[in-house]
Amino acid sequence: MNICLPCKSALTLAILAAAPASVLASSFQLLEQSPAHLGKAFAGTGSDITDASAVYFNPAGMGQLDRPFLTLAGNLVMTEAEFKDQGSNTNGALGSTKETGFIPNFYYVQPLTDRWTMGFGVNGPFGLASRYDEDWMGRYLATHSELEVANVNLNFAFDVNEQFALALGINYQRADVTLESRFDSTLGVNPNPATDSSAKIEGDDDDIVADVSMFYQPTDSTNVGLVWRQGGKFSLKGDAEFELNSACSPGAGFPTGAPPAPTTGSICAASLTAVTGDAAAEVELPDTVTLSVTHSLNDQWALHGDIAWTEWSDIQTIDVMNTGNNATITELDLRYDNTMRYALGVTFKPAGAWTWRAGIALDEAPQKNAQLVNPRIPDEDRTWLSVGFNYEFGNNMSVDVGYAHLWVDDADIHNIDTQTGHTLHGKFDSKVDIVGLQANWWF
Q1: Burial letters 410-433, b for 16+ CB under 10 A, else e
Q2: Per-residue pLDDT tens digits for 258-269
Q3: Are the C-beta atoms of 243 and 184 separated by less than 8 Å?
Q4: DSSP states of 387-426 as a string?
Q5: What does the mean pLDDT of the chain come to?
Q6: Does the residue 265 lie in any domain?
Q7: Per-residue pLDDT at 276
Q8: Are 316 and 338 in contact (CB under 8 A)?
Q9: 31-48 burial, b for 16+ CB within 10 Å, e for fewer?
Q10: Of 112, 173, 176, 203, which is most buried with the most CB atoms under 10 A?
Q11: Average pLDDT, integer, range 319-342
Q12: Average pLDDT of the residues in 83-102
């Protein structure tokens, strides 16, 4: 079967919803759902219950908030990835992507009875954004990527007794994807940014998923949280648009019909026509399991820990389909592995209105094989270092501020296109800075 190269380029992006250009958490997972937890590198997320973000991090702990509680937050994520060439054979400039994204959070907790508590939240647990120049060396793999997954969460928690609580939640998730790349109109004969054509795809889908959680207090000074969150299954469907370079149109050395051999003086080595149509791909987001522990040393000091497992291994080979003729356009060999995240944090609350936080975390990447890495996934292991604070205004309001810097290991890439001979060989030097601001009200 003939494979449409521009189709392959653009639709590969559609199912690389698992492909971040800026590594924030494991692959394209976004932990930035609470500036308060950000201040301690997201340690103790399911055991340190201080505000309404428990709706997301551990709904079973919502009963610890004995009154209506509202939390509004925003996280500013500043990412940068710079490509360093080590022998690529494609004409073009060195590439980099530098993006600033905003991740909002909204949570509300409402006690219903002495034992029942309801929680409602809106956030964005997955996402990515990247933009490379259209003349960079890896333009045939990626230029512009944007993924947004919005999550609306409703939870109900039941306090079994004074020590133990359970919760069940339902989540509506909506995924929107916009992805762009260039493709080589010469099919490797004379690759040049001036003769490239373009590909763009936009798609969306939604799903309903669940979460189950537990909160346990074995002693007055120790809390334990355990949370399972289901990953959504999305059938991404949308429009694929391809614009052929005007220099490669019929009459400009680009004949119609079967692909000819390269002709003298022609910049186009084969016959491609502008393709526009429907396309689809199935993507399953990962389940996550998080175990959290908080232990108070005394009235002022507390230690927090998180161990989180993410089931990225659900993403292996993904078929990209042409919905018009049900043919396989291409198969993506991602071969993701499951990942672990380890976080340790501390809080200090002296007498007065202030609470101080700090934390460190180690976060694994699901794919580090240079031959499988894509510029949309310059992903590697990363180390978090975070600080933050909470300040209480009177008896019913407080503010949290958090900051984190991520050191990202260099991501090697050695991507070879066997059809055109293009090779992207080098490494990505990435870094991330995150600032979060949160306001809390209780009534």
Answers
A1: ebbbbbebeebebebbbbbbbbbe
A2: 333 333 334 554
A3: no
A4: EEEEEEETTTEEEEEEEEEEEE--EEEEEE-TTT--EEEE
A5: 84
A6: no
A7: 59
A8: no
A9: bbbbbbbbbbbbbbbbbb
A10: 203
A11: 77
A12: 86
Is a pLDDT exceeding 70 seen at residue 7? no
Q: What is the DSSP string of 60-100?
A: GGGGG--S-EEEEEEEEEEEEEEEEESS--S-SB--EEEEE
Looking at residue 269, its pLDDT comes to 47
- Token digits for 103? 């991740």
Please say whether the beta carbons of 287 and 311 come within 8 A.
yes
Q: What is the pTM of this model?
A: 0.86
Q: Do the Cβ atoms of 3 and 20 come closer than 8 Å?
A: no
Q: Residue 295 and residue 341: Cα distance in Å, rounded?
A: 19
Provide the residue range defining the domain that includes 20. Answer: 5-259+270-442
Looking up tokens 């190269």 gives 5
**Statement: residue 383 has pLDDT above 90:** yes
Asked whether residue 133 is domain-assigned, the answer is yes
What pLDDT band is residue 329 in, cutting at 50, 70 and 90? Answer: low
- Percent of the chain past pLDDT 70, that is, above it, reads 83
- Burial zone of 241 (CB within 10 Å; 0-12 exposed, 13-18 middle, 19+ buried): middle
Classify residue 262 by burial, with Cβ atoms within 10 Å: 0-12, 13-18, 19+.
middle
Tokens representing 166 are 């359970």
Q: How many domains, the chain?
A: 1
Amino acid at 87: G
**Which pair of tokens denotes residue 45?**
């997320």
How wide is the angle at C-alpha 200 spanned by C-alphas 238 and 142, nearest 5°? 125
| Both tokens assigned to 129 | 């954004």
Looking up residue 216, the CATH number of its domain turns out to be: 2.40.160.60
Q: Show the DSSP H helices in 166-281 as ranges.
A: none
Quick one: tokens of 253?
Answer: 């050395």
Task: Return the higher-pLDDT residue of 26 and 163.
Answer: 163
pLDDT at site 72: 97
Best CA proximity match to 168, nearest among 122, 218, 118: 118
Report yes or no on 264 lying in a domain: no
Whether 305 maps to a domain, the answer reads yes
State the CB neighbour count (10 A cutoff) for residue 256: 11
Asked if 281 and 14 touch (Cβ cutoff 8 Å), the reply is: yes
